[in-house]
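// run 5 | inverse folding | seed 20
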């Protein structure tokens, strides 16, 4: 069964990386919610994709230089639609709370950049104390970030994000003890045998980011374990017809 992974939540119907997008994903039948996590200037973990708040909030500035107490009052909804005016930029703690309301949904947690041990430990403690270790799959493009996780939380499942499945990517995934090796959808559509190579290595494969049946069909035919999509509700409907 192909897993449905809501990219930044159901980011087609609500502003990306906000609680409304996550709730829409959960209510719409997603198996996982994917979020992007970054470190603020005070070491806080904030849910945002870009290095700056400019595109997705009414503020301006670099996330790594801003305080959570300032960022959490930004409007992260109006840029998407005036109907979402006043939607807050979430902290990681807000996502932990939300997952408590949706016990069937997992979290695909992308850590952006390479974090220092202190903020990493703070997030890992939140995950452990909330009893979420088995519902979280941590992923990153940064090998060093995954090495840090491997050291600090060896029991937390982790995945490496890559552009495509190469021999080097498979070697790195194995060295990291990754449970999944996650390439772009385009690379798998171009080279479907990549799925078997990942499976033969004992890992799963979740591809990003596909929003249409034209891409879902070859990905499902190739045997991917999950599809990361901005349209999880649409993917759920399409999968039901297969
Ligand atoms: O989950 C994979 C995907 O989110 C990686 O790309 O830029 O959307 O974070 P990006
Ligand atoms: Ca992401």
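// decoded
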């Amino acid at each position: 069964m192909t897993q449905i992974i809501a990219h930044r939540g159901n980011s087609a119907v609500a502003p990306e990386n906000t609680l409304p997008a996550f709730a829409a994903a959960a209510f719409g039948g997603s198996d996982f919610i994917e979020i992007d996590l970054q470190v603020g200037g005070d070491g806080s973990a904030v849910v945002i994709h870009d290095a700056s708040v400019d595109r997705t909030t009414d503020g301006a500035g670099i996330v790594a230089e801003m305080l959570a107490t300032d960022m959490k009052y930004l409007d992260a909804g109006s840029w998407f639609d005036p109907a979402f005016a006043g939607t807050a930029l979430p902290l990681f703690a807000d996502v932990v709370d939300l997952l408590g309301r949706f016990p069937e949904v997992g979290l695909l947690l992308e850590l952006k950049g390479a974090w220092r041990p202190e903020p990493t430990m703070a997030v890992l403690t939140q995950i452990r104390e909330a009893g979420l270790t088995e519902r979280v799959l941590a992923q990153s493009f940064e090998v060093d970030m995954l090495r840090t996780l491997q050291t600090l939380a060896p029991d937390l499942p982790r995945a490496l994000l890559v552009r495509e499945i190469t021999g080097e990517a498979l070697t790195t995934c194995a060295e990291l003890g990754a449970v999944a090796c996650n390439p772009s959808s385009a690379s798998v559509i171009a080279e479907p045998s990549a799925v078997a190579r990942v499976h033969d290595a004992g890992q799963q494969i979740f591809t990003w980011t596909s929003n249409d049946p034209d891409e879902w069909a070859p990905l499902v035919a190739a045997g991917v374990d999950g599809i990361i999509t901005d349209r999880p509700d649409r993917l759920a409907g399409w999968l039901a017809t297969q």
